[in-house]
């Protein structure tokens, strides 16, 4: 499930809440978040469609939608703060919306990780098998070169 969650980084939300003191930056950040969320929604839909079991797909879909609603509220509060940059109540609301979106991000990530368990198990198993194959290849190379000491007078070719 290759879902691009780069915009979900804490750095982005730190920038959003830090922009409370510099509201003119909020428009660009809101635009970036909207574009990034669009990409996430598309990839999340694909991830949900391929997730097994079906319950994991439902969780991914639901949590991505909830994140979208949180992003809408965040963009609305950013717009309100740009209209009235000195309103302390709107600043607090923006910070609360950013905090809520951060929580929703962690829920999306946990749903994606739950759907990724089988894939991760396959990657781990493939890595272990690759290591065993590499060890066997090395042993065969040394045995073929005759550098391994035989306990009796048998040759490697007899056992190969």
Compact summary:
With 160 residues, the protein is mainly α. It has helices spanning 10-18, 26-50, 54-83, 88-115, 117-145, 156-159.
Question: Would you kindly provide a written description of the structure presented here, covering whatever features stand out?
Answer:
The chain is 78% helix and 0% strand. It has a domain at 10-116: A middle domain of Talin 1, CATH 1.20.1420. The chain is mainly alpha-helical. The chain is built from six helices and no strands. Its main location: cytoplasm.
Question: Main traits of this protein?
Answer:
160 residues, mainly alpha, A middle domain of Talin 1, 78% helix
What is the topological layout?
Layout: H1 10-18, H2 26-50, H3 54-83, H4 88-115, H5 117-145, H6 156-159
Work out the strand percent.
Answer: under 5%
Query: Main sheet?
Result: none
Task: Give the fraction of residues assigned to helices.
Answer: over 70%
CATH topology (fold) name of the domain at 10-116: A middle domain of Talin 1
Which consecutive residue ranges, at least 5 long each, have pLDDT under 50? none
The CATH class label of the domain at 10-116 is: Mainly Alpha
Number of helices: 6
Oligomeric status? single chain
Distance N to C terminus: 42 Å
What are the secondary-structure elements, in order, as H or E? Answer: HHHHHH
The assigned CATH architecture of the domain at 10-116 is: Up-down Bundle
Pfam families: VBS (PF08913)
GO molecular function: actin filament binding; integrin binding
Subcellular location: Cytoplasm
Protein name: TLN2 protein
């Amino acid at each position: 499930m290759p879902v691009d969650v780069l915009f979900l980084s804490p750095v982005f939300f730190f920038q959003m809440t830090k922009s409370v003191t510099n509201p003119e930056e909020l428009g660009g950040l809101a635009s970036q978040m909207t574009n990034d969320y669009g990409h996430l929604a598309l990839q999340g839909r694909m991830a949900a469609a391929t997730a097994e079991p079906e319950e994991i797909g439902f969780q991914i879909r639901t949590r991505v939608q909830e994140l979208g609603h949180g992003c809408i509220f965040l963009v609305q509060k950013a717009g309100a703060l740009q209209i009235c940059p000195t309103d302390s109540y709107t600043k607090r609301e923006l910070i609360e919306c950013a905090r809520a979106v951060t929580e929703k991000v962690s829920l999306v990530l946990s749903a994606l990780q739950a759907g990724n368990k089988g894939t991760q198990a396959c990657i781990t198993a493939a890595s272990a098998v690759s290591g065993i194959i590499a060890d066997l290849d090395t042993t065969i190379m040394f045995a073929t070169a005759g550098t391994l000491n035989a306990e009796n007078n048998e040759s490697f070719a007899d056992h190969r």
